[in-house]
Write a structure and sequence with these properties.
mainly alpha
Length: 102
């Protein structure tokens, strides 16, 4: 009986260690989601909006800053709060929205 208890304890410990590692890897992946091409395209879009709709360009700058702020805050957390994830998705969708006409 003692051997079974020890094995079970070891399996639970291993499970928690793997889960923690998985969550850290997810956070690292989240940090890396802002790829250079995404940033470049977003900045070029903001630049284009400044000529057509400066208020829209300003909102996009705020959305980009908010996205980075959220990523920086949640990246060290073992789990991402659903509200943060939703807010991150909203900001990202705002950045990926309609492009200005050329």
């Amino acid at each position: 009986m003692g051997v079974i208890v020890l094995r079970l304890r070891d399996q639970v410990r291993d499970y928690h260690a793997l889960r923690s590692r998985s969550q850290r890897l997810e956070a690292e992946l989240l940090k890396k989601t802002i790829q250079p091409h995404l940033l470049m395209n977003t900045l070029l879009t903001i630049q284009s909006w400044f000529g057509q709709d400066p208020a829209k360009a300003g909102r996009l700058v705020e959305a980009l800053a908010d996205e980075f702020r959220i990523i920086s805050r949640v990246a060290a957390q073992p789990e991402i709060d659903m509200a943060d994830e939703i807010q991150l998705c909203r900001r990202h969708l705002e950045l990926m929205g309609p492009r200005p006409r050329r």
